Model the fold of this input.
Amino acid sequence: MDSGMAEDLAVSPESTVGVEEIPRPDLDESIPPSKSMDRSLELKKEGNRKFGSGDFLAAIDVYSEALDICPENLETCKHRSILLSNRAASYLQLGIKENYEAAVADCTTGLELDPDNVKARVRRAKLNERLENFDEALADYKLLAERDRTIPGVVEACIRLPPLIEERNEKMKNEMMGKLKDLGNLVLKPFGLSTDNFKMEPQASGGYSMKFEPGKKK
Done:
């Protein structure tokens, strides 16, 4: 084969000649969009029935199937948001902590599709609270309280979480100070000193000063 013929047969990176088109993963392109949407709506109802009967694992599977065949466009954003939120609710009802991160991700994606999905925000707040992500949970509860203070549990959560956050932060601070003290003792030990030789005293202007007390040795 001469070089001219080789150049004629060559396919550039931009060309689609001879390249099999790969369909988008969330769409079944063998089904017209309208039929895909109709089927997705039917599956949502089936998922709701499974959820209502307490079969949460089956509900998760059905909601997932509904998402897989749902067309992705502006018209289906709310529908997909509901499916994601419902799947998260199923994870929440199962009560298996290992699934909570996936459920939070579902709620987050659902809120990206429809920021007005109140149930998705409520569920994300509850999930984050169970995961002890108290700051994230409180942020959602505050947004919900601003929107509608009558949503069950929202006002109570806004009161309940701040002390938990403060308690957690205090615990983290004490743990950090303990580790710093251990490190300081390791450094000072060769000199016959310890962190007990140094006393932190609060200043009226703010901050702390350090006072050396030579009498204490390790």
Remarks:
- Residues 188 and 194 are 5 Å apart (CA to CA).
- The chain has one domain: 33-202.
- The first strand starts at residue 198 and ends at 202.
